[in-house]
Structure prediction request, 482 residues.
Amino acid sequence: MLNKEEVGITVSKKEDFSEWYTQVVLKAQLADYAPVKGLIVLRPDGYAIWESIRTILDEKLKKTGHRNGFLPILIPESLLGKEKSHFAGFNPEVFWVTHSGDTEIGDRLALRPTSETLAYSLYSKWIQSWRDLPLKINFWNTALRAEIKATKPFLRTSEFLWQEGHTVHATQEEAESEVLAILEIYKKTVEEELAIPVITGKKSNKEKFVGAVYTTTMESIMPDGKALQMGTSHFLGQNFSKPFDVKFLDKNNVENYAWQTSWGVSWRLIGATIMVHGDDKGLVLPPRVAPIQIVIVPIYYSDKDAQRVNQKADEVERLLVSKGLRVHVDRRDELTPGFKYNEWELRGVPLRIEIGPKDLDKQKVTVARRHNRQKSDLPFDKIGSEIGTILQQIQDEMFTAAKKMLDDRTVTLTDYSRFKPELEKGHFIKAPWCGNATCEEKIKEETMADIRVIPFGSENSTGKCIYCGQQGSADVIFGRAY
Prediction:
């Protein structure tokens, strides 16, 4: 049997955040390192979390008229050259296929870092008239980008799971509405399912997606004070439709270039969930996305008690499964209850139900909440009616705690002399900015912080730019990112 030092978290989240994160990923059995540097293997619990996110998003996207498609992994270099300025931003990260067996191929093939060029070369064939619009396709893909220096599971890996949507519209107005609608879907998913609050708005021109007219984003802060981009939605305008000839005949039989959007989130959301909610005991999962929402631990020390305790555990399991909940009964006789408690806390199961002989005598179970480690008694006849409410309370309390962290770590400044000291404390900084890229670049150069988001509604600032002192154009959020 493994001892506690081998299976438990051995560092404090506050004292060594990076090592703590890595240990949680590995020891909570979410992922492991692959034989190739920069790649990870997703284990069943990690994949189950991704499946929950995917299922939730997929349902919302289909309700809004989006359909799923599939794209191949290889893109010919000659095709990528049709939008050189866009692809230049990815070129340093591209993996290239140069041989088929021992034979050198003519046109190099890129392992897809993103799919704009591939999708739009096909869209130009599929779209002929206004009747073909809007075209709204989502792809559940992997992408490959060479991250081999500063890798971190779920946050920076050379291959990652994501979804990327690519839509085509007849009008600018319709395309821009799509951008905001998708961002709102993302926000509701992250806040309601992952219990992580986000700040939504636009990226600066310097930070926007290469090839976009503008990029909208949702940002959050992690417990180590760094910013994490949780998802983006881009208005591409006609920047891709023109080089790729994505055109249509309108109702007056006049040919027009289409208007386009693209958007995506990745398994980075799993990394955010680990960081925001985890503690020194390990993973803490929101009930909505937990692979196992409830673990039942039967407790007995004699054969006489074993039969009746296990019988009750099975009964409770059937009841909860009938409610649509994900339940597991830990029937491993070779392990002590205490060992089981520690293991399930490490793996982040939101709710633990303990059933022993004394509980049977008192017609109740003991319920332990993972997020705050509080225990309470629950009568047998209340299990079916109250467990769902308890899980929702856990979900709500986790969001409230995360929102408090975001609020507490966001400071408003007008004095640049305080900028760097507040960053060192692990804060987001909200401050007026004049809109000049020079000030943005100087701040980045001097502090390693960039503009994470220009929040919606923060435009027309009445303050003075925190760097140059000129009239501000918006109150923006600065932060250091992964």
